[in-house]
Each structure stands twice: as structure tokens, then as C-alpha cells.
Amino acid sequence: MTSTTIKPVIMAVDDEAAVLSAIVRDLRRQYGGHYRVLSSASAATALTTLSELAKRRDPVAMVISDQRMPELEGVEMLERAIALVPDAKKVLLTAYADTQAAIDAINRVGLDHYFMKPWDPPDELLFPVVDDLLADWASVARLPWQGIRVAGSRWSSAAHRIRAFLAKQRVPFLWLDVDADAAVRAEVEEAAGGELRLPTVFFPDGRAVVRPDDRQLAAELGLRTEAQGPFYDVVVVGAGPAGMATAVYAAAEGLDCLVVEREAPGGLAATAPRIDNYLGFPTGISGRDLTSRAVAQAERLGAEIISGRRVTGVRVEEPYRVIQLDDASEVTCHTLVLASGAEFRVLDVPGARQLTGSGIYYGASHGDRKLLAGEEVAVIGGGNAAAEAALYLARSCSRVHLLVRGEKAVASRYLLDEIDLTAEVELRLGQRVEAALGEGRLSALELRDGSGEKHRLEVAAAFVYIGVRPACDYAGDTVSRDERGFVLTGPALALRGRRPDGWPLDRDPFLLEASTPGIFAIGDVRSGTYGRVATAAAEGGAVVSMILQHLRGWERHERLGAAG
Ligand SMILES: Cc1cc2nc3c(=O)[nH]c(=O)nc-3n(C[C@H](O)[C@H](O)[C@H](O)COP(=O)(O)OP(=O)(O)OC[C@H]3O[C@@H](n4cnc5c(N)ncnc54)[C@H](O)[C@@H]3O)c2cc1C
Questions:
Q1: d(CA 529, ligand 1 centre) in Å
Q2: pLDDT one-digit tens code per residue, 270-306
Q3: What pTM was estimated for this model as a whole?
Q4: What is the pairing mode between strands 320-325 and 330-338?
Q5: Domains in the chain, please, with CATH?
């Protein structure tokens, strides 16, 4: 990832349109690569913009103002600007007749320079002085934020997707709300040639990318998005705890291993604020922390992980298994591990689909919590994930309504005890959500309580934890599934003690093997698993021994074939 500084601002102010456009043109041509040149035809608007920049702690390197302006003279404008951006260089544009005012201003407002209009040729009369002033400014400026910035509307679902992706990748970013900040709005418009196209991601090297998808984001962040080779011993679909454990153990055994992840490594576990029951972490560990350790470990051992890429199909071309990716490219392997987990079940009530990402969320990130600080929110669901999310959100939201449909929450006792002790969380039993209300963003939920009465709950956001469904549509008919769609493996495949139909080998399917030999399923996607991080990771480790046995059998078969 590149990491230069964000662009500091040069602000030009002049009520005369021709002069303003000439100075802005010259400044952008010469300094546009490293500075953001903003312009204003009025002193009042310029001061408002400077005040917003100052509030956001955006660096302002220079303010250049014309002296003769109808509402406020340039010297006064600069005097007020100093209060807002004290470190910026102050420059006056004067006509010959105003020279005395400029000289007086040197002491009064600490004027750094004055230019006589016109400044032609700029190469001689403008740039050398501006170069010196900017170099001087840069030598002492403390630039506040050097990372990625995401500009968008707070309630936009596209912006939410980008924030969630960066949060999962553990990439720090600065959120810029265009609805709350005119200067940000101006910058976004400038980046898109005068149009407001949202969301826009600003990278530290000055590039602005409008509405990037996950693959583009992954590539921009310097993550790998393309497999290095066409063939692997093991391909793993999904980089949750199950997939990452497979990668660690497979790579440690010397197998060529590729992990394909449609979003960012971590899986559902990355959305868990605190995992309390993972062996060896007595005070709990966050899903994000566990993920970054796993990624570092897998890569150190030689596994390859590609992000922002979705597996869309699987087929068998004996003796190989072939996966298709979202751009129709293919990767071939000896063995395939389905570790694609489960997805949150969606809230199927009127309004919920339209408001997804705009107040209805699946999974709560650190960014969501920050953005919703002080707000009233709801968490829908009665299990552990819902209880954990409620406690997590209670750390910054003013009130969290934990809405449980039944008359009893099924979360673990220790979580319910913690909820009892948390004043901000209100556990509300017997509440069925019937609609999500709001235009462009969620404003309220429509609830029906146990007595059949309907009422409204006004909340800024609702986090949905009402169960999961398996994420394995891409596997088509290469695997058999249970009645809920989870992948059947090992003994669960046997019908009345017989091997599954069409099973070609003279051995039974291994414990974690699906109905096609050499295709395995582990973690939350597998029928009968116990949806826990530790179980997923344990199955990821265990599957490697079955992969090795399968490969040994295949090698023997090949040798016998060659000999015969
Ligand atoms: C909020 C929350 C809190 C939780 N807290 C705990 C806890 O405290 N303790 C605990 O033990 N468990 C907890 N769990 C459960 C735990 O997170 C899961 O059991 C575990 O993550 C399952 O791991 P997995 O690798 O099987 O699947 P996942 O973690 O779901 O990972 C699957 C990965 O596959 C990817 N994928 C899916 N489809 C494709 C495709 N077509 N192409 C490429 N990639 C794909 C997904 O993007 C995902 O990254 C919690 C879950 C949630 C949601």
C-alpha cells in the first residue's frame, strides 16, 4: 500500500470571476499533484469552508485572498482566517493602488507575501515565491491523517459496504460525511470532475476511486486478488476460521494451498466483537485480532490467500476439481475444501431489503458503533450473537433494545447476566418485528408484542441476528445437502448403512468428505457442525489429514494405472 500524505489545501478567494479562475488555473497546474486547490468567490463562504476544514483537522497550507472585495477586505479576511487556520501561509493579491494596505498587513496579520496583479508570467512572478512558502509550511506542518479516507452519505448502503470491507481487512480509515461537511462535499465533487459521485475512497497517494467493488478495493489495498498459479494441491473456499486453519495446516505439510475469499479474511468470526471461548485466550479475543494472527501465520507458512474474489461454480474433471471465479477464470486442484460458512438470514419483512445498509445491518463493526454513538438502536434476535452485539453496541449507543421474538432469550447465561448489569441494554421479550420504516434510512421498526398489539419503536439502526443459512450455492450438485441446505459429509452421507449413490471409490467417505471424493466441507457450512470458532478451526486442522490420505490414494491409483 502506498503511503504518502493527504493533500493539504490551498484556498484562493476573489470576487472577480476572471481573476479567481486565472489564479486557480495556475495553482492547480503547478501544485495540483500535491495540494488540493479550493476556490471561493466570497470571503464569507471561504471562511465557512476554512472553519469546516479546521474542525476536521484537514491541513490548510495557504490562503490567497484578493484585497478588494465588496463584503470584506482581503486583509480582514486573512485576519479572520488566522483564527481558524493559524499555520497556513497568508498571501494577498493586490492592485498597485493597494500596496500600502498590503505593507500594513505584514505586521497586523503576519502577512507572508503579497502579489501584484497580474502575476504574469507565473513561472517568474508566482511559482518561485509560492514554492518557498509551501516548503516553509511543509517543514513545520503536522499532517493529521495519512491513511485512506472514505467519503459518503452516512446512511448509504454502498458506503456501509466499503466501511465493512475495510473494517474486516483491519485497514484504518477516516470517515467523511458529505452531508455534514461542505468542504468534503466540494472535494468529492472536485475528484469526480464537478459531479457528486458517492461513495468515493481517497487513497494516501491522492487517487480517488468512486464506488469501488470489493475486488477493486482489495487490489487498491495491495491485497492479492489473482491466484499465482493455475493448479494447487488444495483449494479452500472461504477464509473464516475453518479455511484459515486448513491453510495453516496444509501449508505446514508442504501442500500448495490457495484460499479464495469473496470479501476479506475472517469470515463471520471477524464480526464477533469478543470471542470468549477460544482456548488459550482467558480474557477473550476479538474476531479481528484472531483473523490477523491467522492470516500472518498462514502466509508465513506459504499459503496463498486471495481476497475480494467469489467462487461461482465447481465442477469435476477426473481426477481434478475445478473452481470457477467471478470473472469466469478457473483454478484446478486435486482437493477442494468448502469452508464458506454461513450467511446471516435476512429479515424478511416489508421495508427491510430496501433499508439494508441504510439502518438495517447484518453484523456490527467498530465503525458502525462509532457512527451510532449516542443513538438509540435495536438488535433483533435472542441467541449469543445478538446478545454479544447488544453488549458491544451498548458501549457507545444511548440505548439498545434487544428484541427477542419468543418469551425467552436463548443466549448463554453469562451473557444474559452481563445484560442484566448493563443499564443501556433493554431486553424485550415477545417482540415480533413486522416492518422496517423510513425513507432512505431506517427511522423505526413496527413491532407486535405477545398480546397482539402493534407499536412503533423509533431507532436509528437495527442489527439483525436471526440465524444463518449455508453459503454454498456455488457448489451446485457436486455435494449432497441436508434439508436446510448444509453440506453432508462422512457417515451422514450413508443411506441405511450404504455408501452414497454414485460414490466411485472402494473406501467410505472420510469424516469431513462430501458426496464427491476429494471435496471436503468444514466449519459452519457442514451439516451437523457445532457453530463455533474452535470447532471450525479444529475441523480445518483435521481435514488436512484426510486430504493427505486422499492424495496418497490418488497417487497409488496413478502409479498402478501407469504400471498397468
Ligand atoms: C456476531 C457473532 C458472534 C460470534 N461469537 C462467537 C463466539 O464468541 N464464540 C464462538 O465460538 N463462535 C462465535 N460465533 C460463531 C463463529 O463466528 C462461527 O461459527 C465461525 O466463524 C465459523 O467459521 P467458518 O470458517 O466455518 O465460516 P465463516 O466464519 O462464516 O467464514 C466463511 C468465509 O467464506 C467466505 N465465502 C462464502 N462464500 C464464498 C464464495 N462463494 N467464494 C469465496 N468466499 C466465500 C465468506 O465471505 C467468509 O469469509 C459468532 C458468530 C457471530 C456472527
A1: 12
A2: 877 678 889 988 777 878 778 888 999 999 999 999 9
A3: 0.71
A4: antiparallel
A5: 9-140 (3.40.50.2300), 148-220 (3.40.30.10), 231-327+471-561 (3.50.50.60), 360-466 (3.50.50.60)
